[in-house]
Design brief:
This protein has helices at residues 13-28, 61-73, 121-135, 137-152, 157-182; strands at residues 34-38, 52-58, 77-79, 100-103, 111-117. The longest helix has 26 residues, at 157-182. The mean pLDDT is 96. Strands 1-2-5-4-3 form a 5-stranded mixed beta sheet, sandwiched between helices. It has one domain (13-182): Beta Polymerase, domain 2 (2-Layer Sandwich). The chain is α+β, with helices and mostly antiparallel strands and 186 residues long. InterPro entries: GrpB/CoaE, NT_sf. It holds the Pfam family GrpB. This is GrpB family protein.
Length: 186
């Protein structure tokens, strides 16, 4: 079992994202509608696993497999899951949560690459979650405390994720209210 390690915030995470995003953009071209830095490393000052989460947004569901195949040809490894967890209060339709996930080629900077379809609930979730935490540093600090305490439980990655998902949802649900109030859009 791999131990979950929460690292101190690293001011170079955005630059590391930019470098990796350029490589991904070069591999995918117009298949990628957008490439975004998501997850905890995208929130300034937030402790995180030292893994850069990147979301590639594609236009259609068949594009998910096209991107996965193109990345696999460049030695990225396709991994489960093939969907995100449904969020209470959001559409339960499986189509809203479909994704592909890949990890970096061996001996490269650690990256989780999430491929999601534009306009789907899971694509919006990652971006709104990030922007809400960026705009609410107190919430980000409380989330950091949770992550550090969860990591101290020495869970495997699957159990850690299962524990973390509902906590993220508790953050996300008021983020939807914030988005409506402020006019936030993707």
């Amino acid at each position: 079992m791999t131990e979950i390690v929460i690292a101190r915030p690293d001011d170079t995470w955005p630059a590391q994202y930019q470098k990796t995003a350029q490589v991904i953009s070069g591999l995918l071209g117009e298949l990628a509608q957008r490439i975004d830095h998501v997850g905890s490393t995208s929130v300034p000052g937030l402790p995180a696993k030292d893994i850069i989460d990147i979301q590639v947004t594609v236009g259609t569901e068949p594009d998910l497999d096209d991107v996965a195949e193109r990345m696999a040809a460049a030695d990225w490894e396709l991994r489960p899951p093939r969907r995100d967890h449904p969020v209470p209060g959001l559409p339960a339709d499986d189509i809203q949560w479909v994704k592909r996930m890949l990890v970096e080629p061996m001996y490269r900077r650690r990256v989780n690459l999430h491929i999601r379809v534009a306009g789907r609930a899971n694509q919006r979730y990652a971006l709104l979650f990030r922007d809400y935490l960026r705009s609410h540093p107190e919430t980000a600090r409380a989330y950091a405390v949770f992550k550090e305490q969860a990591a101290a439980l020495r869970l495997g990655i699957g159990d850690y994720t299962d524990l973390k998902d509902p906590v993220c949802d508790l953050i996300y649900l008021p983020a939807e209210e914030w988005a409506a109030r402020t006019g936030w859009t993707i």
